[in-house]
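Tutorial, part two.
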Amino acid sequence: MIAVLDVLRTAGRLLWRHWPVLLAWYAAGVLGRYVVIEAAGFVGAYNAVAGSLLLPLAILSRLVALVAMLLVVRDGMRQLDEIAPLPTDAATRRRQFADALMAGILPFFAFYAAWGFLREDAAAYSARALEVSAGLNFTAIVDKTDPVGDGLAGALTLTPVTFAIVVVAFALRWVLQRYRERLPRWFGIIAAYLEAVWVYFAALVLSVAIEAVGGWVQTRQGMVWLDDFRATVSAAFAPLAWVWEGIEWFLGEAGGIILLPLAWLTIAGVVYGQAVAPAPLPADTLGGEVGARLRSRYRSLPARLRARLGDIWADLGSRFTPIGDAIMLMWRAGPVLIGGFVLLYTVLLAVQGWAEWGLLRLVGPHDLNDFWLVFDQAIFLVVPVLIEPMRIALVAGGYDAVIGRLVTRRAAAAAASSEPAPAAPSGATDAPA
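Running the prediction step on this input gives:
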């Protein structure tokens, strides 16, 4: 209960001090996403590859706003400030913002895709591209000219070009990362874009591959037998069907109730993760005998090749290390604190649902063409604009409580280790050697 009150107290203080700036950053992220999707759809009507290369900027605009919102409340996180005081010079703050942005691209894109936001952006992009493409085709018919564009209407499929984009973007991103100290600061913008491009297209390739494998599995005879067996057992023993449906319902609800707040806390841990990180495991102890053999063969490679492979591996590992560190910190904070944070986040989701329901009742029924098709976007944006600063304040408060729990445990461990040993009883002598 005390942990929940600490999270609430910190979140309330952060929201009170920073809500106008949080609201402004969120609105800027939404506006940037809208502008990029409109521009990408327009370009995609002419060339699907060019339009798809612009689409990651829509997600990146949301990420920039998110990182900015998390860093805005950074000065009010007292527990984190004890471990890593907020820098006072502007240059260090800009560097921390850039580092947090680069570290947050991979987990944010994964979160964005897992909760369907990437699908929403792709649908909005496709609708815009189809609209522009239909206008171009109509103009070509009226003018009796050849249609303009590649005829794909923004749709991008798996082709050698798609794989080439992933490889080229990753290679260029690696080069910029390797020589970042020698390049001007504005090259960081290009590096962030390249990072977003290769992650987005890699996610596209992975999603298409998973969909293809899933479709293949569903058409196998074994799955048909399994469905028939389940239907037979359910018909013969109804309570078993109820239990199975209950498990499916629980697993579906657990994703939104448990995994969603933990995903937000993980993203916050990645953004703030430069402050605290668990001690790394020594690589020479991993893998046992097999790992020792692999390391021995690796050391037999030419030094130049090992250096390049080491750079690539370090670059790949640097993207996943902050995620692992954030999960480890949550694990060490204990189930009571994390469970309290999940409870508070669930309450916030309920408040958001009630607010959306109340807003629709407040607006009331109106004509579809004259009202809803004109004002629907603005109306449905009211509740997120109000809720999102609360969400960021709650997530920051939860992470600060996690850091506070770790600070308390470290202090207790240090105090226990520094206590003097109890004095020996009078008359006691040392045992002979």
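DSSP finds 15 helices and no strands in the chain. In part three we will examine how such features are distributed along the chain.
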